[in-house]
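Input record (one chain):
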Amino acid sequence: MSAAGAVGGAAGGGRLAGRVALVTGAARGIGAALCRGLAAEGAAVAVHHRPGARDAADAEALARELREGGARAAVVSGDVADKAAVEAFVAEAREQLGAVDLLVANAAATARVRWTEIDPDEWRRVTSANLDGLLFCAQAVHGDMRERGGGAIVTVSSVTVELGAAGALHYVTSKAGIVGFTRALAREVGGEGIRVNCVMPGAIRTEAELELFPDQEALAAEQAAVQSIPRRGLPEDLVGAVVFLCSDESSFVTGQVLTVDGGWTMR
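The corresponding structure, as predicted from the sequence alone:
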């Protein structure tokens, strides 16, 4: 089914009907798939992208696709590591779509760098996007959720937290921090009706992965050997988990980590 068809199918309702979702890092890959999935369940979606012509074009195309499928959609932009920029794009999302009920904090920075070669600027580039950005986004939507009596925040970690990964020390460290952030924030805001949960993707084939691992045939073989489900993970494989964590079906679930990795790790 096309994304537009999926959205159109939820025109009369859906598990997220009447809610406004902000998805960061949504121009392509996992973020784009999540926007389609949330819209298919009736949510209005603010498609966030980092500054840049390429991401802007992709985000606009995605928003247009969602609107053609019957959803309300807006495009917002800004650096998640810049608190003022975050407050500005959350305000824009609110102005265009209404108060934010759902935050999917997907934006992330990554790189493959030998750990001895990570200088302070490189360390801060990755950890600021992955941790500072998460804090700033959660703070910016908190008022909306509190005033509306509840909401849901979904963070995105990585299975590398469980496994470790060579050449990605700063990335793995920050993704581990996201798990701690999720659990701590869940304690802070549970009394306000706000739930905070985390999805932990395994190896997902995205544009960013293609850039980091150009030999996809070899990677597919490696993953088939370690996963219980011997196929490549796709961005769409995250949609069900995120929709569940955003919906009332998970109304008694908070502070949890849901791993979506084809059975690579088990715990």
